[in-house]
Structure formats: C-alpha cells, structure tokens
Design brief:
Blueprint: H1 2-9, H2 24-51, H3 63-85, H4 90-104, E1 110-115, E2 122-128, H5 146-150, E3 154-155, E4 172-180, E5 183-192, H6 195-232, H7 243-259, E6 264-271, H8 274-281, H9 283-299, E7 306-311, E8 314-319, H10 325-340, E9 344-346, E10 349-351, E11 355-362, H11 369-384, E12 391-393
Parallel strand pairs: 11-12
Antiparallel strand pairs: 1-2, 1-5, 3-4, 4-5, 6-8, 6-11, 7-8, 9-10
Helix pairs in contact: 2-3, 3-6, 4-6, 8-9
Length: about 400
C-alpha cells in the first residue's frame, strides 16, 4: 500500500496493491485499487480533452502536473485573448505579442514580419536583439521564406540549410508562421546563439504558437476594420486620401508641427485645362489623366509626405519637416516637371498635360493651418491666371482680405 501511494503521488496510478487477505485489509486493498483505476481513467480522459485545446509536445510523466500546467496555460491564454479582444487597434495587439515574447517567454533575439493580404509585401513589425533573419520578401521572391511558403513551423535542426532564404547570422533558429483567411499573414523568426538556448526555445515555441494562434482571428478582424476605415479615407479613382481624411488629419499634423518647432509645406495643385480633356476625349480619358498625375505626384514625394484629392482635378500635397520656402518650391518644381514628362496614349494621339502649383509654409506664412491652405490656394490662383504650368509661392501682396 505504501509503495502504491508513493507511485500515485508521482502520477502513476497503475501500481495496484497485491494481497490475498480476505479481512478488512483485503477490502482496503480492493477499494484502493478501484480508486486508482478511476483516477487513471479520469486523468487520462482529462489529458486527452485538454490536449484538444492546446498542443503540448513535451509531455510530463505526472498527469496531475501535466493537467495543472495545461489548465494554467489555458487560463493565461484566455486572459490574453480577452485582453486583445478589447484592444483598439492592430498595433495594440502587437504590443501585447511583444510582451509575450520578451517578458513571458524571455525571448531576446527575434523579428516579427507582417505579410500583406495579397502576399506580395512584407513589413517589419518589431525587432529585438540580433542575429535574426531580416530578409524582406516582396514581389516575386516571396517563396524564399520557407515558413511563409509552407505555412509550417521551421527550425534549424530539421535539416542542414532547411531554409535557403534564411539570412540570419545566428546558427539556431525557429520560424513561426501565423495564418488567417487561408494565408500566412505573420512570420516570427526567433534566433539562438547557442545550443542550450535553442533547446529552451524548442520547449517554449509550441506554447508561444498556442498564444499566436488565439491572436490570429482577432488580428484578422482588426486588419479588416483598418482596411474598411482606410477605404473610407481614400479616393476610389486615384487612391489618394480624400477630404474626410484631410479634415481628420490636418489639425493633428499642425499641432505636431508646432510642438516639434518644425514647418509644414502646403502645395495646391491643379491640372491645366482639365475640362477640355473631358469635353474632347470623354470622362474615361479624364480619369486616366487624373490617375496618371496622382501617381506621378506620389512617386516624387517622401514616404512621410501626403497627397489628398482636394476636389475635382485639384490636389493637395502636405510636406512634413520642410526646412524653408526654397526647399518646398524645389519639390513643387520637381513635381511639375515630372508631370509634364508623362505621355498619355489616347488612341492614335498622345496627351501631355501640365499642372499649376501654389505653395505656402506653415507656420511661417500663416498662423493657422487652414489659413496656410487658403494662401496656397491663392498662390495657385495666381499661377493659373499668369500663364499656367508654373509654380508660385504665396506672398502677402496676393491677399487682400476675403478677396484675391
């Protein structure tokens, strides 16, 4: 009985008491063996059912400890899921995932990459430490990432040179792909400098994958909401931001500019003789001209600068951290020249369109951002009525109260 109890405390419920006694001691042995059988069956059932919720590749010999660990992990995953369900954005969820990596699992060297819905673009969400695979697979080379291509967890011990696209300097690594909507949308690459750390990561990687799997559908929902919001702030024809976006954004940008003691350049752009294009060639050609001009403007700006379809054929450019009026007007002149280089094929004809641009600098020329917009529009008016196809910087002589 003592040996059986010792085994039971270690989770082994198969060590029955053997006796030929028929008295009370025999009854104790019989009922004790019956209890062990029930415990064995019950914990076996619990273990099987818990295993259907989360993966535990490294099983413990003690089913009591195994069940306790699994229940604790399920509880922690549930708390994690409830927390991210109420987060406001995708970026908030990413911050919690970063906490998991670094604080909960003690992972110090890793990179997390987000894959676009079409699978053609990757961007870095977060990096920590060193030695990780920093390859950004875009366009036709997206298959270079084995984890992305297969949708399976990849580790360096599976086969020498298992991933031919791996660019990390660490000798040991794990890659965890997270899929939703039938596509891999996140890839986490974890690297280890030595074998001991790799063994530790090997044990925790499946548990980390359990958390990330729970985050996947919530991330998918947040990304969908962001996509819907983004589409509501974009002009469907040109892909530029619209007036709704401008109204939400411009005051915040102005406030940030004042805090940074920086300057914001405002360029108002109008396509010269655009109505004539519509009247002569029709609205389809007019739409093509708009899209071509919009694309040219975007391609000749920094990533931090913004373009807004202000109305009709008029567009606005917001230039961040402009040093002075000269640099702002140099950007404007570059845009004007690039647009004039476009040759738009219309049947057997070739259209070459020009633009007029007016510029104003906030807060140097105007003490409010909307006044700067008005001044840039005034400068555009002067550019159009003084010959078109030119860049004009606002000055005070152009403004006389409410009329210009």
């Amino acid at each position: 009985l003592l040996e059986s109890i010792k085994n039971a405390t270690k989770g082994n419920f198969t060590f029955n008491v053997q006796t030929h006694l028929k008295d009370e001691a025999g009854d104790v042995a019989h009922w004790f063996n019956s209890l062990l059988g029930k415990l064995h069956d019950t914990f076996g059932s619990i273990e099987t059912k818990l295993g259907s919720f989360i993966a535990h590749p490294h099983r413990l010999d003690d089913p009591l400890a195994e069940s306790s660990n699994t229940i604790n992990e399920l509880s922690n995953i549930y708390k994690f899921k409830k927390a991210i369900e109420n987060d406001g954005s995708k970026d908030d969820i990413y911050q919690r995932i970063i906490y998991l990596f670094e604080k909960h699992f003690g992972i110090t060297n890793y990179i997390i990459k987000e894959v676009s819905e079409d699978g053609m673009v990757e961007k870095i969400v977060h990096t920590a430490g060193e030695g990780f695979c920093d390859r950004i697979s875009n366009g036709s080379d997206h298959d270079s990432c084995r984890a992305r291509r297969t949708g399976n967890m990849i580790s360096s011990d599976q086969f020498p040179g298992i991933c031919l696209g791996y660019t990390g300097t660490a000798p040991y690594f794990y890659c965890l792909p997270i899929s939703f909507g039938g596509k891999v949308r996140l890839v986490a690459n974890i690297t280890c400098a030595d074998e001991e750390e790799f063994k530790r990561v090997s044990k925790i990687a499946p548990h980390l994958e359990n958390y990330l799997s729970e985050a996947a559908p919530i991330l998918e929902s947040k990304m969908l909401m962001e996509k819907l919001r983004e589409s509501s702030l974009r002009d469907s024809l040109t892909g530029l931001y619209n007036r709704k976006f401008l109204d939400e954004y411009i005051e915040k940008a102005a406030a940030q500019t004042l805090r940074d003691k920086s300057r914001l350049g405002i360029l108002m752009i109008d396509i010269d003789h655009f109505k004539m294009v519509n009247d002569t060639y029709g609205h389809d050609v007019g739409d093509l001209v708009l899209k071509t001009v919009a694309k040219t403007i975007r391609e000749n700006l920094r990533e931090s600068d913004l373009v807004v379809r202000y109305g009709g054929e008029e567009m606005m450019v917001i230039l961040h951290a402009v040093s002075d009026e000269v640099s702002m007007m140099q950007v404007a002149e570059k845009i004007r020249l690039k647009v004039a280089e476009n040759k738009i094929k219309v049947g057997s004809e070739t259209l070459i369109k020009t633009i007029s641009i007016g510029g104003a600098l906030f807060p140097i020329q105007a003490n409010t951002i909307w006044k700067a917009v008005k001044y840039a529009d005034v400068a555009l008016y002067n550019a159009k009525h003084s010959g078109r196809n030119k860049v004009v910087l606002f000055d005070s002589t152009m403004w006389s109260g409410d009329k210009y």
